[in-house]
Amino acid sequence: MSTDGSADRREDPPPPQNNGSGAIASIGGGNGVVSGDSSRPFVPSQRLRLNPNKDHKPDNYDDLQLDFNPSIFSSLERYLPPSMLSVSREAKVQFMREILLRYLPQGEQTRAQRHREYRQKIISNYQPLHRELYAMHPATFFAPQFLKAINDNTEESFRSIMSEPSPGVYTFEMFQPHFCELLLHEVENFENWVNEAKFRIMRPNTMNKFGAVLDDFGLETMLDKLMEGFIRPISKVFFSEVGGSTLDSHHGFVVEYGKDRDVDLGSSTFVGFHVDDSEVTLNVCLGKEFSGGELFFRGTRCDKHVNTGSQSEEIFDYSHVPGKAVLHRGRHRHGARATTAGHRINLLLWCRSSIFREMKKYQKDFSSWCGECNREKNERQRMSIAATKLELLRREGESTT
Q1: Which of 32, 123, 220, 321 has the highest CB neighbour count under 10 A?
Q2: The pTM is what?
């Protein structure tokens, strides 16, 4: 892919791929199925509201066995049309479930059921090493300055701890070293259990042969709280145009790079140039000692423009630092360079918004966040202005003759 005048003369990566982990991860989190009120048919013409009903207090769905994360239903309920707000909770579940099921390809419901059984088998047999990781403990998890910024909950407080080395890429100190160590030990303990039990696990996504899905062995609730209480407030400020304020589900995992891990590149320079199956992505380096492994970014793109070239101002490389976080849009094209020595482990949290995904179906222009849509919009405006000037000059010339 061309760099169009980049000062970085290294080989550009191939076109990115949508690095989806499958619809299971994107909607999972429940442990059963609700049939809903079958006497009430779903009415396709009833679309969701464009803006949430802030005065409406949504129901709690935690006590139901659902094939989607219960928090998705609570979040989605504020966007229901007025006629649906007064119906039974079961009817609302069916209405919202029909919307959510649009994202499941044929046969995916069976896979979701198998995935729930798979998770249950792990949780029933795996013995956690550090149980304190499985509940949210902000004072011991987070760096003090990060926690203060979250508690202040203002754009000014967030910007005070953040750097934006490239448009749309934010870096900041996030986790305490002790938390990183505990999580590394927990992942290592889980991997050892997998090997000893000869248990076949699902890897994080289609690109990584090493690493583990944290949600699958009990960390889902903690990661939900991480997204809701600590990532969503920041995303509401910096990524509102891609659903940052309505993040309601996640896919949490670790990836491992280095010797005997995922980076045996041979002559290749790039690892998996892609876009994420997320609205907002959190990427935190947990350690250990390593060289190389830089992230490279090449601009944010919608589905239509994902394979277009990069402008020079969109090209950015980032070197990982243990404990330091990178936050960016999931549609921000990126990849990793080779980890040339040592062992690098990163925590990834793909944060998703069911509201944004539904609304996006009715949009054609994404110039507020897609670099190519914005470039095309500016070009149309430039041509329109030039045509107007030309017409004015023509009229002026006619009036003087």
Answers
A1: 220
A2: 0.73
- Between CA 364 and CA 373 the distance in angstroms is 9
Question: 333 and 372 in contact (C-beta within 8 Å)?
Answer: no
Torsions phi, psi of 34, nearest 5?
Answer: -105, 130
What is the C-alpha separation between 177 and 96, in angstroms, rounded? 41
Structure letter (DSSP) for residue 230: I
Closest-CA residue to 263 (of 320, 217, 183, 184): 320
DSSP three-state, residue 63: coil
| CA 265 to chain CA centroid, nearest Å | 26
Residues forming a β-bridge with 18: 275
Task: Give me 106's structure tokens.
Answer: 């044929």
CA distance 214 to 190: 10
Residues 352 and 279: beta-carbon distance below 8 Å = yes
**Count of Cβ atoms closer than 10 Å to residue 145 Cβ:** 14
- Measured in degrees and rounded to the nearest 5, phi and psi for residue 351 equal -100, 135
Residue among 247, 234, 239 nearest 161 (CA): 234
Asked if 278 and 310 touch (Cβ cutoff 8 Å), the reply is no
- Rounded Cα gap, residues 387 and 95, in angstroms: 49
Residues 6+ apart with CB under 8 A from 304: 372, 373
DSSP code at position 2: -
Question: What are the tens digits of pLDDT across the range 262-288?
Answer: 553 333 444 467 899 999 999 999 988
